[in-house]
């Protein structure tokens, strides 16, 4: 082993040096909120299986103002995930050709927003229960 | 011959979960976390009987299983890879086992709970 100790620039906080990197790390950080939400859903499902008393306790927590605020934050993270996910999709998915021409990136992105709009309407209609 | 990487499997689950989350999660979060609890969807929208009926239908089971398990796989794949971005170098192997282990555990728990609901 040599005793050389070359200078290596610290990488600490690299993602704060450039707005582009910050946006990248924000995108990655959405996963923490998505995991949190999936965990809340799993707790709700377990409570549902445990019976009405357990489920009503879960529901009481869901109605608490802190839970509502948390869900608005989770929603913001989820929307940021959707926007960034759709934005990179033309580069991430396998190339598709229609009539020998590559599909325009704008069309791929727009069709996913359309799919999201339709899916959202279906979800709300499914949940609707006056 | 070099051992095959298991990365494509995790990447596929990450991609499937990411797409599912991008299309479905915003509206699902509004329903279960804001509009439902506040009663905007009707007084009984979140009732035990209704939630149970949904989880007992085959469509509901598939929906709940797909959303919970794939979002877990997506999120923990990203969390694990972000550790590298944040400069974590030691113990990445342990973090990998913990991350994918949690996703696998959540998948198993979801499946067992759905079967328990019947």
Describe the structure.
The complex is a heterodimer of chains A (130) and B (118). Chain A has 130 residues and is mainly alpha-helical. Chain A folds into 2 domains: 16-81, Fumarate reductase/succinate dehydrogenase, transmembrane subunit (3 helical TM bundles of succinate and fumarate reductases), CATH 1.20.1300.10; 93-130, no CATH class. Helices cover 73% and strands 3% of the residues of chain A. Chain A is built from 4 helices and 2 strands. A two-stranded antiparallel sheet of chain A has the order 1-2. In chain A, strand 1 (97-98) and strand 2 form a beta hairpin. The mean pLDDT of chain A is 92. With 118 residues, chain B is mainly alpha-helical. Chain B has one domain (8-117): Fumarate reductase/succinate dehydrogenase, transmembrane subunit (3 helical TM bundles of succinate and fumarate reductases), CATH 1.20.1300.10. Helices cover 81% and strands 0% of the residues of chain B. In chain B, helix 1 (7-38) crosses helix 3 (58-85), helix 2 packs across helix 3 and helix 3 (58-85) packs antiparallel against helix 4 (92-117). The radius of gyration of chain B is 17 Å and the shape is elongated. The chains are: A mainly alpha (130), B mainly alpha (118). At the A-B interface, helix 1, helix 2, helix 3 and helix 4 of A face helix 1, helix 2, helix 3 and helix 4 of B.
Main attributes?
heterodimer; A: 130 residues; mainly alpha; 3 helical TM bundles of succinate and fumarate reductases; 2 domains; two-stranded antiparallel sheet; 2 strands; B: 118 residues; 0% strand
Main sheet summary of chain B = none
Class inferred from helices and paired strands of chain B: mainly alpha
Major β-sheet annotation of chain A: 2 strands, antiparallel
The number of domains of chain A is: 2
- Strand segment tally of chain A: 2
User: Over all CA atoms, what is the radius of gyration of chain A?
Assistant: 22 Å
**What overall geometry of chain B do the principal axes of the alpha carbons give?**
elongated
Uncertain parts of chain A: none
At CATH level 2, the architecture of chain B is Up-down Bundle
* Proportion of strand residues of chain A: under 5%
Indicate the mean pLDDT of chain A: 92
CATH superfamily descriptor of the largest domain in chain A: Fumarate reductase/succinate dehydrogenase, transmembrane subunit
């Amino acid at each position: 082993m040599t005793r050389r100790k070359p200078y290596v620039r610290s990488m600490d906080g690299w993602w704060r040096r450039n707005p582009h990197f910050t946006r990248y790390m924000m995108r990655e950080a959405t996963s923490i909120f998505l995991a949190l939400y999936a965990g809340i859903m799993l707790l709700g499902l377990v409570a549902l299986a445990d019976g009405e008393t357990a489920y009503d306790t879960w529901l009481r927590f869901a109605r608490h103002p802190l839970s509502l605020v948390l869900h608005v934050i989770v929603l913001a993270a989820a929307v940021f995930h959707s926007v960034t996910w759709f934005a990179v999709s033309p580069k991430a998915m396998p190339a598709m050709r229609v009539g020998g021409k590559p599909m325009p990136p704008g069309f791929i992105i727009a069709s996913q927003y359309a799919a999201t709009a339709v899916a959202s309407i279906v979800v709300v209609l499914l949940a609707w229960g006056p | 011959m070099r051992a095959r990487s298991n990365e494509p499997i995790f990447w596929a689950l990450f991609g499937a979960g990411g797409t599912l989350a991008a299309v479905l999660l915003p509206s699902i979060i509004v329903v279960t976390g804001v509009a439902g609890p506040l009663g905007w969807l009707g007084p009984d929208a979140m009732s035990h009987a209704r939630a149970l009926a949904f989880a007992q239908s085959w469509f509901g089971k598939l929906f709940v299983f797909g959303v919970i398990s794939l979002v877990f796989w997506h999120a923990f794949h990203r969390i694990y890879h972000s550790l590298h971005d944040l400069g974590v170098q030691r113990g990445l192997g342990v973090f990998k086992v913990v991350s994918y282990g949690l996703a696998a555990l959540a998948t198993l728990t979801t499946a067992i709970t759905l079967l328990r609901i019947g």
